[in-house]
UniProtKB/TrEMBL annotation:
Keywords, sorted A to Z: Membrane, Transmembrane, Transmembrane helix, Transport
UniProt name for this protein: Transporter
Presence of the UniProt keyword Membrane in the record: yes
Source species of the chain: Candidatus Aramenus sulfurataquae
Residue ranges of the TM segments: 21-43, 63-86, 98-117, 123-144, 156-178, 198-221, 290-315, 327-347, 354-371, 377-398, 419-438, 444-462
UniProt cross-references to InterPro entries, sorted A to Z: MFS_dom (IPR020846), MFS_sugar_transport-like (IPR005828), MFS_trans_sf (IPR036259), Sugar_transporter_CS (IPR005829)
Length: 476
């Protein structure tokens, strides 16, 4: 190793030995605020789209599902383009600066959504929002993984994911409050405002305006984030990386903790290529991982987005009332809320692949419970199980994907899998919503769950192990 490579390796070794979160915890909150908005935007269409379809597109509630599919697909096409085109810039110009840019794009998209005047403009706004979200998720998970302690990467990715679940919860419940008519619980929300005053026609617009406000707040907060030391090293900025790691060490020792012995110094690359994708597509190791992770995400996202974006419309197409379908989706998000605490507590105890198996089994169970009876209380229980199942594996799989590629192309590697994987989500939603009125409930939920089951089989049979290993050991 050259002198600079040795110095870089020593800084990384010092970073890898830090046993706990060593930045200010406020930074987790700053990142989390962005994730809260991101998932607020992903989930707010679930309940509110019925009102959008009725007031803006002039169709009946039962006709909303076919219109939802193309809109979700447009959002996910934007997601894919943003992920593939913008995420690699994070490997070139830095994690923090791109986190600010991607959230700005997302804020603009959400503000445009609030002002949409027809189906085409609504579609365009969702696509713009997708551009920002696609890149943002890739960069956020890369950033957290690069500064988190070796043994607890899934824990801290999952802690940030808690904000995502809060965003999803707010997206659905605010939609229920602002866009559905009141109905006695549990058949609806008694205090819902969706049939009175401005909320009767513009409740959905207010939802997207709230999302834009949250995004602009997140932009301001992100200016306070430090840069990733690993990225700084990949650009030869050793002094800057050393300064940040030194502050992290001081943070740990100020708590009365002792730093463990320095681990072995691994070779470090201090000059990354100008085209990060070439590091993946021309390297047999990373190309092999891409061949496993990409179909896994493609199939799994079909299940995720069919439920996350479409459950209310799917239930309405199955004959449920608007308020009833909305309350089932809204109560189901309780299961999503449980994901963050469970994944942060237990995510590092099992292999990353195991969690896909757990999630797929619970998704099958939740769908079966909903389909087995029209009793709304049982449907709500099923929805809680369903939302927990199709989400519990997500933060662990985020961690796994981030770990699978080197620092010099880590965001790009995440983007290839997560971005292209979202095409599966978009195509799946179009197909599932088109079939919603022709399949029985049991058949519909069986089709939705089958994609996640196949994804889990791929991960369990072909996946590589990363739990507890150093990043530069996994992906040199």
């Amino acid at each position: 190793m050259t002198e600079s490579e040795l110095k870089a390796g020593e800084i990384i070794a010092r970073l890898d030995r830090i046993p706990t979160w060593a930045l200010n915890y406020i930074f987790l909150g700053i990142i989390g605020t962005g994730e809260l908005f991101t998932f607020f935007d992903i989930f707010n269409i679930n309940v509110s789209f019925i009102q959008t379809a009725v007031t803006l597109f002039h169709v009946s509630p039962s006709q909303a599902a076919p219109l939802l599919g193309p809109v979700v697909l447009g959002n996910l096409i934007g997601y894919v383009i943003g992920s593939l085109a913008l995420s690699p810039l994070s490997d070139r110009i830095g994690r923090r600066d791109m986190l600010i840019i991607t959230m700005l794009i997302t804020a603009i998209g959400s503000a445009f959504n609030a002002a949409a005047f027809n189906y085409l403009s609504f579609f365009a706004a969702r696509t713009i929002t997708g551009l920002g979200i696609g890149a943002d998720l890739a960069i956020v998970n890369t950033y957290i993984g690069e500064v988190a302690p070796t043994k607890y990467r899934a824990r801290y990715v999952s802690l940030v994911f808690i904000f995502s679940t809060i965003g999803a919860f707010l997206g659905i419940w605010v939609g229920l409050l602002l866009t559905t008519p009141p109905a006695p619980f549990p058949n609806g929300l008694p205090i819902a405002l969706g049939s009175s005053g401005i909320f009767a026609t513009a409740g959905w617009r207010i939802m997207y305006a709230i999302g834009a406000l949250l995004a602009f707040i997140s932009i301001i907060l992100r200016f306070n984030l430090p840069e990733s030391p690993r990225w700084l090293i990949s650009k030869g900025r050793l002094a800057d990386a050393d300064e940040i790691v030194k502050k992290m060490e001081e943070k740990v020792t100020s708590k009365g903790m002792e730093l463990p012995p320095l681990p072995s110094v691994l070779p470090a690359i201090t000059k990354s290529p100008s085209v990060p994708y070439s590091e993946i597509l021309t390297n047999k190791l990373y190309l092999k991982r891409l061949a496993v992770l990409l179909p896994m995400w493609f199939l799994a996202y079909t299940t995720v987005y069919s439920i996350a974006s479409g459950l209310t419309s799917l239930l309405t197409a199955q004959g449920y009332g608007v308020s009833e379908a909305g309350i089932i989706s809204a109560m189901g998000v309780i299961g999503f809320i449980l994901v963050g605490p469970v994944a942060s507590a237990y995510g590092d105890r099992f292999s990353r692949q195991t969690w896909l198996g757990i999630g797929s089994l619970l998704t099958i169970l939740g769908g079966f419970i909903i389909a087995s009876t029209p009793n709304i209380v049982i449907d709500i229980i099923g929805a809680i199980v369903l939302f927990f199942g199709f989400n519990v594996w997500v933060p662990i799989a985020y961690t796994w994907t981030m770990e699978s590629f080197p620092t010099r192309a880590r965001t790009s590697g995440f983007a290839l899998n997560d971005g292209l994987g979202h095409l599966g989500g978009g195509l799946g939603v179009v197909g599932v919503t088109a079939l919603a009125t022709s399949l029985s409930a049991l058949e519909l939920f069986g089709v939705i769950a089958s994609f996640l089951v196949i994804a889990a089989i791929i991960a369990l049979a072909l996946g590589h192990k990363t739990t507890g290993k150093r990043l530069d050991e996994i992906s040199p």
